[in-house]
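G., the chain you wanted modeled:
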Amino acid sequence: GGILSANLPSYQVAHFQDNVGDGPVFNTLLPHVQTEFVCLLNDDVFFVPSHQDFFASLIEVAKYSSVGCVGPSTDNVCVVWQDIRNCGPFDLLAAVFLHVFCLLWRTEFIRSMGGFDLSLPGGYDIDLSIRLRAINMKMVIDRRVYLRHIGSVTLNKFDRNSYMLRAEAALKQKYGEGIFIDNVYLGGKQASNLTDSLGLALHEFRL
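Predicted structure as tokens:
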């Protein structure tokens, strides 16, 4: 916070006494965002120095009215098709789910969605992905940009298994027992293996 304040005086830095999680922090700060686009970015990520157009690339996608949110490719994520090693030949991929480590939206759109559902104990990205699909909004992986993601740095400080079980139970209560197939909701379609899962989840997205 101090580094940002000193070098970028136009930035406002918010401090939370406790680690309340990404969902509550995002919802608390969303009303104060004054830019056209807003990005939720975890702190366990590293940018590739050569990707100076990282945000410009994501914004190029997010500005389309059919796009609910956009995220980069990475190499450590529970969403197999967001892994750069599984993304295939396409630059832009429409997916059924995006991971919360880096998500970018049009500010007014995510405000209209009410941000994350904080009645849930976790699983905010899964819930938001389901809500976006329910209103026919696209979630796009931008393979043109890459972000190194360490993964689960905060979660590993807590009882990870207990957290995951609570989130899963809450999502099942909200959406029904059939929500999880291969760890990700695929609209009720069966995915017996990774290849089938990728086939169901991905198709080329054209601007």
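The longest helix spans residues 160-175.

Shout if anything looks off.
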